[in-house]
Structure formats: C-alpha cells, structure tokens
Design a protein that fits this description.
The N terminus is likely disordered. The strands form 5 sheets. Strands 7, 8, 9, 12, 13 and 14 form a 6-stranded mixed sheet that branches. This protein is an alpha+beta fold. The protein has 2 domains: 75 residues, Type 1 dockerin domain (Orthogonal Bundle); 246 residues, no CATH class. Helix 1 runs antiparallel to helix 2 and helix 4 packs antiparallel against helix 6.
Length: 337
C-alpha cells in the first residue's frame, strides 16, 4: 500500500516494509511511530559504536536523512509493499599452482575483481529472497591431451596455446572462483536518494583443475606422477576455498537485514520501473554498484583477500603457513619422473 505524507515541507511518497527489513522501527514494535521518532532524536549526532539502530541509513550519523526515512515510513511495517527487488551476481577468482619444474617463471596467482555476470531487478522476486543453492565447492575439470608429461605440461602452461588460466604471458593449472549473489529491496526514495536494504547474500565456489586421460602407452611413472600432482593441486585449491568460506558467515551477518546493509544511493532521478514493470537499468545499475562497493569495502571481505595472499606467499617466520602457490604442498608437476 502506498502512503504519502507532507513532512518538513517535503512530500514523501514511500513504501513501508516488513519488520526485520524495517529499520525505521527502532524499538521493534512492528510499527514506525512517535516512540521511534523520539528514540532517533534522543540519539541525534554521531553513532558512537556502529551499528546504531537509530542510524537508519548506516552512514555513521543520526541526522536529518534518518529522520526523513523514519517519517516517510510512519505506520505498520508492511511486507507486501516495496519499491522493488534487485541484485547482482558476479565472480572473483584466485588460483595458480602447478608450474612444471623446468619452468623458471615463478608461480603466481590470478585475482580478478568483480566480473559482473548478471544484474536483475523486478517488482516481484520471491519477496526479495534468492532461490536455494547447493553447498560446498563445485569441481570443474578441463581436458588435457598428451602422450607424456612433457606434452601435458605444454598443453597446460604454454603461454600461447596452453589450456591453463592465463595471466599475462603465463598460465596456471588450477583456479578457485568465488561467486557472490545478493538480493535487496529499495525501501525508500527521498529527494533523489534511494535506500536499498540488502536482504540476502549467497556465496558459492568453483574449483577448476586439469584432467588428463593417459593413453595406453603412457609411461607408468608419468601416470603415477600425474595422479600425485592432481591430488596436491586439489589440496592447494581447497585451501583457497576454505579461506573464502571462513569469512562468508561474517559478511552475511554484517549485511543481511542489518543497518550496514542499508545502502543510500544518490542520483535516482527516474522511476525504477516503467508502466509495464520493466526495470530501469540505468537506475538499478547505480543501486547495484553502490551495494557492491559497500560489500567489497567490508573488512571481512578485505580479510578474505589478504588471507589468500598470505596463503600463496612463500613461507617465512612471519607467515609460516605460506605455500608459495602450492610448492610447499607438492603441487609442482615433475615432467621427467
């Protein structure tokens, strides 16, 4: 149900939303009312220890912007009325074990930031809830051909023709991809500023490794070495996956239906949907970019990346668990066993 009020000489036409996705309901009564307004006024100023429930837009201050959101949402929190749902799906990737011993080029890693795969928005997306997904990393293999490990190594690592993952003029045998998808709802629009509440974040992982089907005449020692290398490479990539997963819960708890997940977005100068409920992609791109920036700026997200950097670094007194991109774990392909 759309509600309109005249407050502070500004016409605010807003949509109320459900408790749990209703940050204007400061006292958790199920209704945004005078008690919430008094609580906000009483906490006016800087938020001393974020997150503060009175800091509705999550910007670190309790100010007029928070008051405008609260006044615009006066009344019962209503799960059926929202401006719209939307989100983004994207990918980060890291990997790079398994340089052959005759190659003097050091191991490396591939780290890509936010390859956006898809953005979506609708007036109806399951009440802003993502569909259920699978658990645990998905293992994907890419085929490699060769009569022995010299040919297999070239098939993976050759800078021009290799099937491994390129990074400049080198290639890497394994890669762990970290996928994210988030969903949220626009809960309010005030004077060209939209307030987008992240309601759900989902993470998944894909580990990509080479697969060699040795020919019948392949040397037994080469087959045994390939099996050993494949096992060690998988150990290394699962280590990357474990480091990602260690932070997933922290990031979800920080953003899902929390003040930190309420993102303010300037520049919403056009309706989010046309008369046929088709999304205005220019406006939703602004919203999704702001949400993505907020997620990536989170310290847990930074910690996730730093942990992977340390994992791939050579071991040292300060970093005893470094793997030198899998070398200390045995993820090096010996081409002349």
């Amino acid at each position: 149900m759309r509600r309109c009020w005249v407050t502070l000489a500004t016409i605010l036409c807003t949509l109320a939303y459900a408790r749990g996705d209703c940050p204007s309901d400061i006292n958790n009564s199920g209704t945004t009312d005078v008690d919430d307004l008094l609580a906000l006024i009483g906490a006016w100023g800087n938020c001393p220890a974020p997150p503060c429930s009175e800091d509705i837009d999550g910007d670190g201050d309790i100010d007029v912007d928070d008051m405008l959101i609260l006044l615009g949402a006066f009344g019962p929190c209503d799960p059926e009325s929202i401006h719209g749902c939307g989100g983004t799906a994207g990918t980060w990737a890291r990997g790079g074990a398994g340089r052959p011993v005759f190659d003097a080029i050091p191991n490396g890693f591939r780290n890509t930031t936010a390859i956006i795969e898809d953005t979506f928005a609708s007036t109806q997306l399951g009440d802003c809830v993502l569909p259920e997904g699978g658990d645990g990393p998905t293992i994907v293999t890419y085929p490699i051909e060769g009569g022995d490990l010299v040919e297999v190594s070239e098939a993976i690592f050759d800078p021009v023709t290799g099937a491994g993952f390129p990074d400049g003029d080198t290639r890497f045998a394994g890669l762990t991809r970290f996928h994210y998808t988030y969903m949220g709802r626009v809960t309010n629009i005030v004077k060209g500023k939209a307030f987008y509440q992240i309601t759900q974040i989902r993470f998944s992982l894909t580990i990509e490794v080479p697969a060699w089907n040795p020919p019948d005449d392949a040397p037994d020692a080469h087959v045994a070495e390939w099996e050993r290398f494949s096992e060690k490479l998988m150990v290394h990539e699962i280590g990357h996956a474990d480091l990602y997963e260690a932070q997933f819960g922290n990031i979800k708890n920080r953003f899902e239906n929390q003040p930190a997940g309420l993102i303010s977005v300037q520049g919403i100068t056009e309706p989010l949907f046309d008369d046929e409920n088709n999304p205005n992609h220019a406006m939703w791109d602004l919203i999704n970019q702001a949400a993505k920036d907020a997620i990536q700026a989170n310290p847990n997200f930074t910690a996730m990346d730093e942990a992977n950097e340390a994992y791939d670094a050579p071991p040292s007194k300060q970093n005893p668990d470094g793997t030198d991109h899998g070398r200390t774990q045995g993820a090096v392909l010996i081409t002349n066993p």
